[in-house]
Design goal:
The complex is a heterodimer of chains A (about 110) and B (about 120).
Chain A: E1 4-6, E2 10-13, E3 19-21, E4 23-25, E5 31-38, E6 42-51, E7 54-57, E8 65-70, E9 73-78, E10 87-94, E11 103-104, E12 108-112
Chain B: E1 4-5, E2 10-14, E3 19-21, E4 24-25, E5 32-39, E6 46-52, E7 60-61, E8 64-69, E9 74-79, E10 88-96, E11 104-106, E12 110-115
Parallel strand pairs in B: 2-12
Antiparallel strand pairs in B: 1-4, 3-9, 5-6, 5-10, 7-8, 8-9, 10-11, 10-12
The chains are: A mainly beta (about 110), B mainly beta (about 120).
């Protein structure tokens, strides 16, 4: 079975802190994604990566950065957390190609106080 | 314009009955894929079913089937014999060939509640 693992399920951070959300997949997928989910706004793409060290901005990249140093790991970084970044963050991965399923992790609930 | 539209924010269904969740999409690509995901209250997104734009048969996976009407650009999910465990949010999503990274675009979701 495909496994996408997000390192933290629940986090509480203070405004201005640097926050790392880690994601690891075990299926040698080329593509990895970070989505944010908010009530009434659905899922919105923050960043995606189609190869090691490659990244592309999604719909809402402001305030976020990403890192992909190894194929299996994709990190989301909040350089200086703000209260409007309180949200659920979902990592996902897939093979390249539209017919390939995108598999999601369990999600990370981040609260910034 | 919305690429994926789910017009039913919430729905009730009686246990053991069938239910249809609506999804319409908008794309100019000829090649695309349509997906349905289930999200229980725990938050995980669970893949349910996939339909390719060139697939002539409607996709089926156990109790899930996809009513694909390409000309109408609709991809409705049908759940047969509803169970209490089907209560969750359901998202329709699309991957387009010409979208960089082939990322998924999601609809706003439908909350399904199964009544005992």
């Amino acid at each position: 079975d495909v496994k996408v693992t997000q390192s933290s399920r629940y986090l509480v951070k203070r405004t201005g802190e640097k926050v790392f959300l880690e994601c690891v997949q075990d299926m040698d997928h080329e593509n990895m994604f970070w989505y944010r989910q908010d009530p009434g706004l659905g899922l919105r793409l923050i960043y995606f990566s189609y190869d090691v060290k490659m990244k592309e901005k999604g719909d809402i990249p402001e305030g976020y950065s990403v890192s992909r140093e190894k194929k299996e790991r994709f990190s989301l970084i909040l350089e200086s957390a703000s209260t409007n970044q309180t949200s659920m963050y979902l990592c996902a991965s897939s093979q390249q190609g539209i017919g390939n399923t995108i598999y999601f992790g369990e999600g990370s609930w981040l609260t910034v106080v | 314009a919305q690429k994926i539209t789910q017009t039913q924010p919430g729905m009730f269904v009686q246990e053991k009955e069938a239910v249809t969740l609506d999804c319409t999409y908008d794309t100019s690509d000829q090649s695309y894929g349509l997906f349905w995901y289930k999200q229980p209250s725990s938050g995980e997104m669970i893949f349910l079913i996939y339909q390719g734009s060139y697939d002539e048969q409607n996709a089926t996976e156990g109790r899930y089937s996809l009513n694909f009407q390409k000309a109408r650009k609709s991809a409705n999910l049908v759940i047969s014999a509803s169970q209490l465990g089907d209560s969750a949010m359901y998202f329709c999503a699309m991957r387009e060939f010409n979208n960089a990274g082939n990322m998924l675009t999601f609809g706003g979701g439908t909350r399904l509640m199964v009544k005992p």
